[in-house]
Each structure stands twice: as C-alpha cells, then as structure tokens.
Amino acid sequence: MNTHTTSSGAAPDLRKFLGRFVLRYWAVYMAAMIVGTVAGVLVLRYHSPTYLIEAGLLIKGEQTGRDLDGELLLEDLGLNRSSTNLENEIQILKSRSLMLEVIDELGLDVSYAWEGRVRHTEIFDVTPITVDTFALDDELWEQTFRVRSIDGQMLGFGMVGGAVLTVPFDSLVETPWGAFRFRYQPSEIPFGKPILLRFHPRIERARELSRALQVNPIGESNMLRLSIEDPVPERGEALINRLMGRYNAASVADKQQVGINTLTFVGDRLDYLAADLLDVEKSVENYKQSRNIPGNLAEGIPVWMRQQEEAEQERQRLETSLAMATRLRAVLTADSLGPTLWPDLMDLGSAEATDAVSQYNELVLKRQQLLVTATPQSPVVVALDQQLGNLGSRIRDNLDLTILTISQQIQKIDQKLSGIRSRIQILPQQERELTEILRQQGIKENLYLYLLEKREETALSLAITEPNARVIDVARAGPPITLSPFTLLPVGLFGGLFLATLVVAIREMLNDKVQTEEDIRELCTIPVSGAVLKARLEAHIAISAGSRTPQAEMFRLLRTNLQYFTNHAPCPVTLITSSTSGEGKTFTAVNLGIAFALSGKRTAVVGLDLRKPR
Predict the structure, then answer these.
(1) Where does the pLDDT of residue 241 fall: very low under 50, low under 70, confident under 90, or very high at 90 and above?
(2) Confidence band (pLDDT; 50, 70, 90) for 295?
(3) What secondary structure letter does DSSP report for 143?
(4) Alpha-carbon separation of residue 217 from 120, 146, 372 (angstroms)
(5) For the CA atoms of the chain, what is the radius of gyration?
(6) How many CB atoms lie within 10 A of CB 76?
C-alpha cells in the first residue's frame, strides 16, 4: 500500500514539473532556440576567417650545416667556434628591434581595410593607396579614418563619423590630425569602395606582433617553427619571411665584427712593418755597396756554420712570437673603454692565450646581443661583464708569462750563439755585420708575411660568412580557420535553450502568486473542493440542463464534493468569498446555485457584499 502511494505520487510530480516549466513556456523555448540558431547563422555569414602562417628555420650549431669548402675552411682558420643556444635565438627572433625593422619595411604601422556594410575586409598588398604620416596627434592613434576616391585625382579623407577633407594625391597635406601624404599605386582591384585606415604606434605594434608570433623548437633538433595567425595571409607570410631575412642579416653582421677589427689591426701593423722592412733592405744594399760584398755571400760560408744558422733561425722564430705577443699586450693594456672585440690572431706563442682571446670575443658578441633586449644593469649582462673582466685579466697574465718565457728562451739562444761566434772569429768582420743586418731583415720579413697571410684569411672569412640559420620552409598560409556550422549551430540552439531555461527559472523563483491547486495544498492543509477553469467565451451562466462543457462539468464536480463535505446535511449553508472584488464570487455562487437546483435541491443565492452591495 505504501509502495503504491509513493510511485503514484512521483508521476504527478513529474507532470507538475513538465506542466509548470516546459509546457507552460513552450513558446519561449521555441523562440529562444530560433533566435540562437539565427544568431549562429549570422556569425557564420559575417565571421572573418583567420589563417595560420608557418615557416621552418634551422639554427646552425657546431656540427650543423658544414661543407668542405665553407665551414671546414672557417674551422681551420679558427673562425667557427661558437655554439648556439636555441632559447637565445628564440628571444632574438621575438625581439622588438627586429620587429620594428620589419614594420618599417612592410609599413605595418598602418592597417587598410575595404569598408563593408557589416564586415570590413582587411587588405595588404592589393591596396590602391598607401599613406605616410608625419607628426600624427597622439590622441588619434588607433582611430579609424575613411578614404574614398572622388575623381581619380582627389581624395575624401576624414575620421569615421567626422568631417571630410578633400586632399590631392602625392602631396603633403596638413590636416587637424597631422600631416599626411597619399600615394596612388595601381592595383588589380579598382578604387571604388571607401578604404578604412587605422594608424598604430610603432612600439605598440611591435609588441603586439611579437606577442602574436610563436617561435617553438621542434623536438630535440635545432629546428624552429615560426607561426602567426592573421586574417590577411599575404601579410603574415611577408612578416615571417622578412623577419627571418633580418635575423640572418643581423647574425652575419655580428660575425663580421671580429673580422673587421682584425683587418684594421693587421692593416696598421702591415703599414708600419712595410716602412721598417724598407729601411732594413736599404741598409743591406748600402752595406754591400760600400764594402763591395758579392750578392750571394752564403756560398762562401763553411759547412760548420750551419749550427749558427739553425740557432739564428730559432732565435728569429722566438723574436717573431715575442714581437706579436708584446704588440698584443700593448693593445690590451690600451683597451680601457669597456668590453670590445680584440684582434683574433694566431701563433701568439701560447695556445692557451689564443683560445682565451677567442673566448673573450665570443663573450663580447654575446653581451652585444643581450644588450639588444636588456639593459647594462641586467643581472645577465653584469655576470657577463664579470666573466669578461676575469678572462681579460687571465689573458694579460698569460701574455706576461708568455713574454717572460720567450725572453728566457732568447737568452739561452744568445748564449748558444755566443759560443758559436767564438768559434768563428776567423770570419771577416764584414760577414758578421752583414749577418746581423740580414737577421733583422729576416725577422721583419717573417712578421710581414705572417700578417699578410692573416689579412687574406680574414678577408676570405668575411667574404664567405654564413648566417646562423637557414630557411627550410618559407612562410606559407594554411587553410582558413573558420567556425564549423556543425559546432556553431548546435551551440546557438542549445545556448538559446539555456537562456530560455534560465529566464523561466528566474521568473518562477520570483513568482509569489497562487496560480494552481498545488500551490494551495503546499501553503495550507484545508482540502480543495474543486477548481473551475476560465472559459474562452465569457458568459455569466456556465451551466444549464444538458450542458456538457468543461466549466459545467467542473461545477457539477464542485457540487458533488460540497455534498460530500457537508455529509448530506438537510439544509447546508455555503459561504463564497475572496480577498478582493472581481475574482469571481458572484459567478461562482450563481452557477453553483444553478448546479444544486438542477439536481433537484431547493437553492437560495444571497448576495452579502455589505461594502459594495449590488
């Protein structure tokens, strides 16, 4: 019995819910779903698609991109020693300085769009006009201007919704907003519709594009994937391609700085040595002429003098290394203006000193790259300055030690030569003097030839300098990224249904009126005798003999319930009242009296409206 009561009570609750929240507001739900679907169709119609533009860039490392004629030669010359940090290259690609160069080259600080009734279509390389701005008012950045052709020679120019000025082509025009010059460029698309212009601040535009640009490594390789989303595919392709070109040009310029400084240093030394060598050669010529010495004096030197020649050659080699080390030490001592690139020379007499100078130049280049996006007070730059200072001190100490070592070796050679000379005292004094002059000449010649070779090697390295990266895939736009109707239309449909449900729920939560029998049963324990529906046709008499209308049947049901409640009393009295007038007291009393009368009961209907009697 209890189970039957529970299951029978659940069904009315469901019917109550459906009747109150669904069937009662079915028109609202239907209208909301139609509006949501129409909104989805409009969004699909006027939505501007975007395009994903992607490109591939290979960052060359120590073992990447070598060939027999290029990279191996640079490695032999000691000019290809740096390694690559992908994170640093990513930050350089996204740097504001590179993006500003691209903006200036492509004119991305001005946006062009064909004006439409609902949607404006952006254009890039097919615009019939270009505009140059001068001294634009700061308050007008990001404002929209309209340009339209008047007669092919004049333009109508002004802010959207504001005054329009008539300006000519290819002339600098002063306006209340600043100075402008409009240039006409023939296009396949005629200048028929108005064009909307929007001017962007260069710095803000660079930041916006840098944030939109995505640079991500591909797996564990040295490949970088550059991508950007843009409603104009040609603009996105031009931006990425030009950015990669500017990045490669900047990397080549950085690499060439060491070579340029080396050429300057070597050129100065060659000029000095050429004059010095000329003086020595003239001294040899004058000495031989004044003493009638034959041209080839070595033919008369005995075989046992070879030891002296070998010792002198060793001394010449040491003096060459000592001269180079002393000169470089003097240059490093004079360098007090901050971290700069030092001449990259080989054979300083110490392999450790040569490697240290190369490491110093690499750190200076890295510091210059960091200063593009950071300040000298940045912790990374300060750390590099400390490394440069420590490395510079180590280089100077190493050079001092090298100079001291070579000097000691020269002293030993001199002692050896002194012993040999004591054995050849029988040689003519002229021969000994000429030997000293020729020795000085050999030192100068060796040093001159060495610097001349280094100058050619450095010039060769500048001519074949390769950038840090190689473009693997040029920028290409993929298919348009559009909204799918299979996704958007159901979203609009269910979105409208959700909003309608939300409105109905809020309405029902705020509704405090008694509208149904269930509302009465929830508020009080008094039994409900019956309910009478409101008829479409308003008639004061709703019941008569033989009538089968819903209202007539409800009055008969109400009569039966009242007879049950009064337990068939011989003369029951029923009071019909309400809270305010106009709620149907008279209508109910009259028709209920008719219902009792039709059942054979003697019935009297008495009006007791004492406040407003009728």
Answers:
(1) very high
(2) low
(3) -
(4) 36, 42, 22
(5) 50
(6) 10
Q: 58: closest CA among 213, 210, 211, 219?
A: 219
CB neighbours of 79 closer than 8 A, spacing ≥ 6? 258, 259, 344, 461
**Is residue 123 within 8 Å of 187, Cβ to Cβ?**
no
Give tens-digit pLDDT for 342-356.
665 555 556 677 777
Contact assessment for residue 225 and residue 56, using Cβ atoms and an 8 Å cutoff: yes
Which residue in the block uniquely carries the two structure tokens 């407003």?
612
CA 438 to centroid of chain Cα atoms: 67
Q: What is the DSSP letter of 342?
A: P
Contact in structure between 481 and 229 (CB atoms under 8 Å): yes
Q: What is the pLDDT of residues 476-490, one digit of tens each?
A: 888 877 666 777 778
Centre a 10 Å sphere on the Cβ of residue 56 and count the other Cβ atoms it contains.
16
Q: How far is CA 158 from CA 125, 161, 194, 358, 520, in A?
A: 23, 8, 11, 59, 68
- Per the rule left: phi > 0, alpha: psi between -120 and 50, beta: everything else, 600 is left
Residues 366-389: pLDDT tens digits?
Answer: 887 777 777 777 887 788 878 877
Question: Is-contact 108 131, C-beta < 8 A?
Answer: no
Specify burial of residue 571 (Cβ count, 10 A radius: 0-12, 13-18, 19+).
Answer: exposed
Distance CA 348, CA 325 (A): 5
pLDDT tens digit sequence for 497-527: 888 888 888 887 887 777 777 777 777 877 8
Average pLDDT, the chain: 76
Q: Would you state the structure tokens that stand for residue 451, as one six-digit string?
A: 């610097």
pTM over 0.90: no
pLDDT in tens, 395-410: 778 878 888 888 888 8
Torsion sign (Cα): 266, 271, 275, 278: positive
Task: Give strand pairing partners of 215.
Answer: 226
